[in-house]
Amino acid sequence: MPRASVREQIVDAAFEQFHRHGYNACGVKLITDSAGVPKGSFYNHFESKEALALVVMDRYGETRHLDKLADASKPPLVRLRGHFEALGQDIEDFGYERGCVYGNFSTEAADHIPAIREGVREALDLWTNAITATIREAQEDGSLTSAQEAEILARFLVNAWEGAIVGERAAKDGSSFATFFTVAFEVVLR
Amino acid sequence: MPRASVREQIVDAAFEQFHRHGYNACGVKLITDSAGVPKGSFYNHFESKEALALVVMDRYGETRHLDKLADASKPPLVRLRGHFEALGQDIEDFGYERGCVYGNFSTEAADHIPAIREGVREALDLWTNAITATIREAQEDGSLTSAQEAEILARFLVNAWEGAIVGERAAKDGSSFATFFTVAFEVVLR
């Protein structure tokens, strides 16, 4: 098997290091050291740390279990729960560390770096749209009786999930995720 | 009037700089430069940047409008809405930048610095307890009919607010706060 290209090694390392340390604490040298490539090689492949962060966000998006929302073999609210359960399991597997790349980048970098702010906004919108479609299905098949607009419920849930991560990183005991599932599925999605 | 002590100047500057730049991007030199004091004076007053961050978190707590929750002249749900409106106004006044110090520190530093993690956890618990008491009052006077445990609703709302800030820092258009108010007060607190 051919060895991963230098570019690929850098993206893999950046995915790990940005997620673990956040945007500001993760410099180009940490990324290239972690990738096992010379620091000088970085700028052959990326214009800036910021440009690499956008590539990492795209790759992170592919791991966000959006496929679970589209699985037509299950009822919409079952899919939605499975989607959030999978997201929660990923974070539990990291000991409630690392959080969500979108939330991390929004918190750390959106104020100061327009391209990252725009990347996060687009990623959250894409995610919200997928949840909106699922909620709309549940409204159409009658499993959700709430007359509240699907898009408003979806935006609220995406944000509430990001906030549950904030709470969980402080408590690291599962309490904020448990609270999310109770209120989201027993109160909001009724 | 006596001049603010060096310690006080450092705390004032740190409050501003941590809030604006986050934990990792804000070093001791940025704080002392911003305070207009020699970098060397820092360690006469604080053992570490981490120790100063805990002082800043305490001071931030005093600005979180918890007094609005205790104002017995208004019905509990009116107070609760006023509390979140005041928090939102503070963030809007900063152009949807800076976010919440608790959320920022949880996201950036809780994984790596146990004292900060514990400080954020305590601050979120204190805030949750104040909201729990307000929700319980609303359940007792019948203005809230939800039988869901007050503490679960309170924890959920605190996290949902933190997440609304994550969304707002990316969109900076008020949409996440508007969504929070709609779902929190029309759906969750019914």
UniProtKB/TrEMBL annotation, chains A, B:
| Ranges where the HTH tetR-type domain occurs | 4-64
What InterPro entries does the record tag this protein with? Homeodomain-like_sf (IPR009057), HTH_TetR (IPR001647), Tet_transcr_reg_TetR-rel_C_sf (IPR036271), TetR_C (IPR011075)
The residue ranges marked as DNA-binding region are 27-46
* Keyword Transcription regulation annotated: yes
List the Gene3D superfamilies hit by this protein, alphabetically.
Tetracycline Repressor, domain 2
Q: Which UniProt keywords apply?
A: DNA-binding, Transcription, Transcription regulation
Q: State a single Pfam family of this protein.
A: TetR_C_13
Question: What is the superkingdom listed in this entry's lineage?
Answer: Bacteria
> What protein am I looking at?
TetR/AcrR family transcriptional regulator
Q: Which organism is it from?
A: Lentzea indica
